[in-house]
Amino acid sequence: MIVNCVAYEQGRRLRDIRPEEVAEHMARPNCFVWVALHDPDPEELAPFQDIFGLHELAIEDALRGEQRPKVEEYGETLFVIMHMITMRDERLESGQVAVFAGPGYVLSVRLRSCQGFTAVRRRCEREPKLLKQGPAFVLYALLDAVVDRYFPVVEALQAELESIEDQIFVRGSARTSLERLYQLKRQTMQLKHAAMPLGDAVSHLFGGRVPALCRKTREYFRDVYDHLHRLEAAVDTIREMIITAIQVNLSMVAIDEGEVHKRLAAWAAIFAVATILAGVWGMNFAHMPELDWRYGYPLALLMMGLACGALYRRFRRTGWL
Description:
Layout: E1 2-9, E2 12-16, H1 22-26, E3 31-38, H2 42-52, H3 56-64, E4 70-74, E5 77-88, E6 91-102, E7 105-111, H4 118-125, H5 128-131, H6 135-148, H7 150-168, H8 174-202, H9 218-281, H10 296-318
Parallel strand pairs: 3-7
Antiparallel strand pairs: 1-2, 1-3, 4-5, 5-6, 6-7
């Protein structure tokens, strides 16, 4: 589906145009076209492939939607893939944005994501001096918008981690906390797999052999790289804290199990004394003086009770019961 197809000249919006008019406006000096597609079919993308001269391998990657974030060059065309990560109902949703940028055009292909770039387009149109730099600035604005949307996800993960940490020392919550920690770890790795490769890819847009399209805007791409570097540091910190929280949680489980084992051992020792005394008087010998004594039975019960009571008191003092 075509979301927008707009022509710009000297950094200012001309008008919405039809796909048939794209080639005409691209031929005009100081003019470029910005086309946005959402979940397009191959038939919808084919006309733009012919007009912009896009490589078939890049088209395949843009439509597949399961690609690693990257920046590739096909002649004068830059092909960028980004992952859209959003938090919804405590779950991470992932989509893909593929951007083709070349002389006179920008084509964005958004897959499996309900978050559009209307705000990005408005921001660019409010800054005609920057938009005058052409497709490179649009590419920067799209990259910057995607990266900025990662930070609320980081904040949500940090909040979830703090909530779990508050529950770790609550008795009986070990299993629930462990399940939440492993889920949080998976979400953190999902975000890391989106941000880390993109940072490596963006570094080629401002350092070393910079593509011709980006030579006048390399400072902007450096800013995006700085944001990604800060994001990666935050994700690594969360991941380390999750690992520490898992270790603490497992330690708490071991401590709880140790407490149970101590209680069981204490009760076993108490009943063992009674069992020993009962076993002594339960032996079938012919000559046992206590068997003929009138007060033997009450005395045996009293000795068992005193022995068990003494052990119980001792274990209570040592904290085993």
